[in-house]
Design brief:
28% of the residues lie in helices and 32% in strands. With 109 residues, the chain is an alpha+beta fold. The protein has one domain. A 6-stranded mixed sheet has the order 1-4-3-2-5-6, covered by helices on one side. The chain is elongated and about 60 Å long. The chain starts with a helix and ends with a strand. The mean pLDDT is 80. This is Lipoprotein. It comes from Niastella yeongjuensis.
């Protein structure tokens, strides 16, 4: 009985830690990202991660959550498009952007 309780507690703690550490990922509109960027004073940067066939990918932190932002290509024009890679050896992103200025490049990552 004691062994089963320990196993159950171990499994529950593993599940809880995975849920807490996993970032939020969803497709957003340009206006949603701009609203959150302007509303959340703790957000100081949005990192451009690259573009694939369907979308532009960004990373930021909103309200203590890391958020992988995906915006459809037909909603936003990025002049300096770079390939989006999900390889584990790839860096997090290429450069920081300003959502209030059409996601214009601010500085290199």
């Amino acid at each position: 009985m004691k062994r089963n309780t320990i196993i159950v507690l171990l499994i529950m703690s593993i599940i809880a830690s995975c849920k807490v550490s996993s970032p939020i990922q969803k497709s957003y509109t340009v206006s949603e990202v701009q609203q959150w960027y302007n509303k959340d004073s703790s957000t100081n940067c949005v990192l451009y991660r690259g573009t694939d066939a369907q979308a532009h990918h960004f990373l930021s932190q909103f309200i203590n959550n890391w958020v992988f932002l995906t915006i459809k290509k037909n909603e936003l024009l990025i002049t300096d498009e770079r390939p989006y890679g999900v390889d584990s050896v790839a860096k997090l992103g290429y450069y920081y952007v300003d959502p209030n200025n059409h996601f214009a490049k601010l500085r290199e990552y």
